[in-house]
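Fig. S4 source data, part A: sequence.
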Amino acid sequence: MGQVYAWLLLLPAAALLAAFTHYPTIATLGQSFFSTGTATRPSVFVGIENYQLLLGDEVFWKVANNNFWYAIGTIPASIAIAILMAIWVNGKLPARGLVRMAYFTPTILPMIAVANIWLFFYTPDIGLIDQVAAKFGIAGHNWLGNPDTVLGCLIVMTVWKEAGFFMIFYLAALQSLPPELQEAARVEGASRWYFFRRVTFPLLMPTTLFVFVNAVINSFKLVDHLFILTKGGPDNASSLLLYYIYEVAFSFFDEAYAATLTVVLLGVLAIVAIGQFVFLEKRIHYR
């Protein structure tokens, strides 16, 4: 009877997971082996033709390269800044609650609002960055219209938005650490850096794994910011994989190729997630 009761409790979550995660994944995988149907030409089985097309798609490889550097730029920076902010607001400082709220505020802002805020910073000549630069005699720059700077601008915006969110998890983890450890280190004369490197950070590894997984997922799901700021331009210099899937599906109406790109994205995320748990699990100390 107890097992039946347990399964009944699990059933709603399992049904939602199957309906909105497992079934769409399997359906997308199946659709990637068919062509895109039209009113006059029905969809037909084409095997791996869509995947062969993907291998020769220069835009895909450019977008994949953009996403790689975007992930490299956002993940370590967001985590490092989140740890620093958590340590800072965990200490005794004036108006600590106000500082915590200020750090967390970017997280609760709507994504479209965040894009418009940073559009105010990056707009050529009249944007805040160019207005400040003009005070020092520096000419204006088209930050979002230059292929050399547009991806960096997106990275800065993402780090600003995500670091406060990750800070909350690190702050909770720091507050759960036994205070006796710090007292013992102080008695032994250990420096703050030594204590953080040898004691605090190893104990934060479970939180780091959780944050790292979320940071990787976030680095592959940017769409709405791109739609407001750059629309993937100039010349796909800021286009990322999920935004390219959105374009293929809803601008080019090629559902089969969009499904193929989605399968590749899911495969990349699965490989990265498995690698994270395999390699980081050995460095995690659960209490």
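Fig. S4 source data, part B ends here. The chain has a mean pLDDT of 88.
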